[in-house]
Amino acid sequence: MGKVINHNSRVQAAFFGEEKNKVIIVDDFIKDPSLLVDYAVNADFLASPMLRQRKGYPGVKASMPKPDADALTKGVEGLIRTEFSIPDTAQLNPPSSSFCLMTVPEMQLGPYQTIPHFDTSRQSFFAALLFLCGEEHGGTGFYRHNSTGHESISPDQSDSYLDSCFYELNNKKIRKRYFSESDEYYTKVGFVPAAYNRLIVYRGCLLHSANLTSLISLNPDPRVGRLTANIFLNFDLEV
Predict the structure, then answer these.
(1) Does 161 map to a domain?
(2) In CATH, what number is assigned to the domain containing residue 181?
(3) Considering only CA atoms, which of 32, 59, 33 is closest in space to residue 45?
(4) How sure is the predictor about 7, in pLDDT bands with cuts at 50, 70 and 90?
(5) For the chain, what is the domain count?
(6) Helices (H), 84-171
């Protein structure tokens, strides 16, 4: 871990929305992000699961080199345990990590890809996103669902929230675009700009969306497009 993580990185916390949901932002997270970019350039990217059904992540994914993936995961795990008060006794379930590139043109998006989403309602599931691209790629936005008032989704809210989303999607004209600013259904409550070698960490139950400011973000070249390293960690604990 010591060879990858920059222990002089800058850590700050942001609290978004009425729920004051915590998002951790770490600048200069790793020592040499260019090594990961170089690896991604030669990696085999494959369509993300459910892409043919126009669901899930709208792009392609590739495996990260295992030593770096393990080091990044260990660094993120320590950060989460500290910042979100996860006890040492809480077991970390097998994590997942990958390089990700958004590639789907807006006119090919499925309905659920045009609105904010949550990864899971499990409160001890965390998402970590390391930007391996610059500020020209927008960032990540966080949202409130206007009709329910939810900014995060708990297990007992999941079914009713999804029912509401389904109703809204079937009773409005779907805009074929990546979601960014507020509309009549969602209010933007927070935003973290993209920055090279910036890590953001948040609970996967938060409503969020990639915010794109230019179609350059859909370029499949890892040196040009919206390249990120995504890590998901699930602790065996309900918090």
Answers:
(1) yes
(2) 2.60.120
(3) 59
(4) confident
(5) 1
(6) 158-170
